[in-house]
Specification:
Layout (H helix, E strand, L loop, with lengths): L3 H33 L1 H22 L5 H25 L21 E2 L2 E2 L1 H15 L4 H4 L14 H19 L7 E6 L5 H14 L4 E5 H13 L7 H5 L2 E7 L6 H16 L3 E6 L3 H7 L2 H10 E6 L4 H8 L2
Parallel strand pairs: 3-6, 3-7, 4-5, 5-6
Antiparallel strand pairs: 1-2
The chain binds adenosine-5'-triphosphate (ATP), magnesium ion (MG) and zinc ion (ZN).
Length: 321
Amino acid sequence: MSTFSDNFDKIKTEYETKRANAIKDAEARTMTLHAQYPALKAIDGKLRATGINILGEAMKGKNGLEERLKALEEENLELQKQRKDLIEALGLPSDCTDPHYECKECSDTGYIGINMCRCFKAALAKCAFENSGLGSLLKDQAFDTFDLSYYNDNPANHERMKKNLEKCRIYADTFAEGSPNLILIGATGLGKTHLSTSIAKKVIEKGYRVVYDSSPNVFNDFNKEQFKNESGLTDKYFECDLLILDDLGTEMITSFTVSSLYNLINTRLNTGKCTIINTNLSIDELRKAYTDRITSRIFGCFEPLMFTGKDVRMQKLQKNL
Ligand SMILES: Nc1ncnc2c1ncn2[C@@H]1O[C@H](COP(=O)(O)OP(=O)(O)OP(=O)(O)O)[C@@H](O)[C@H]1O
Ligand SMILES: [Mg+2]
Ligand SMILES: [Zn+2]
């Protein structure tokens, strides 16, 4: 998995290239305009000369330096005015010889003083989204699109889901190293994936590394690494700040997947990294499917959120019929 620093280096290089290209483009444009309009070339030549003259005057000694510099400054201002008038008279845009940077605020340097420009922060977040595995889920699944009216059939369900939504919102808002682990338990179509990806979105925006994947995909990577000599496939599951392991229990459960799960959860707990597990299995079914070593780990260190109600996927389908 790309780390924050890999992403940073990648974007920094993109910015350097982008900026260098904008400068090269401006130079080429200026050369063409100079060829077309010799008067502009002449003024630009003189302007360059005043820059050099300032240095020359400074080296001549302090005597009368102030007046000499003032004269040069006036000459410079007069030339700039002439240039502006000429460009206007020629009907050219005022920035016709300037580099056209994508970001006007930081001129594509990525920084304003020592602060990272918001365009650079956005580029980092975009990179993190692309690396998260969330893909198209990010399009529709967010806290704002989570509608509690789907749980209206039963006041107890509605109340429980309202609390779950609130809990997940707070979790996302206050996420930090050492945040608790969650296990979202409930039948199909009740919004477990929806709420966990909503958390992921917020946590990525805060600059944390998030990895989301379904259990079969995760254990497939463990399998390939162990038996097909493909190295480095599972590192991201251990290293990310927040792992969302979706659909636990839908993988083919074998002694290998059980021990991989134990190793993953145990390592993450020991290194203080947060995990969210989603599952259709009840607590009893989890106990049966995985060993006591895992279930006691999960129940001890994960906070359960129970999802109840009527399948929202079905409700949405019926509404659209
Ligand atoms: N409260 C809700 N408001 C709006 N859309 C919802 C809500 N709950 C679920 N959905 C939508 O219904 C579909 C199913 O929800 P989701 O995938 O989150 O269910 P799930 O609990 O993860 O189910 P499964 O156990 O089958 O994975 C998704 O498209 C999701 O966006
Ligand atoms: Mg799901
Ligand atoms: Zn910028």
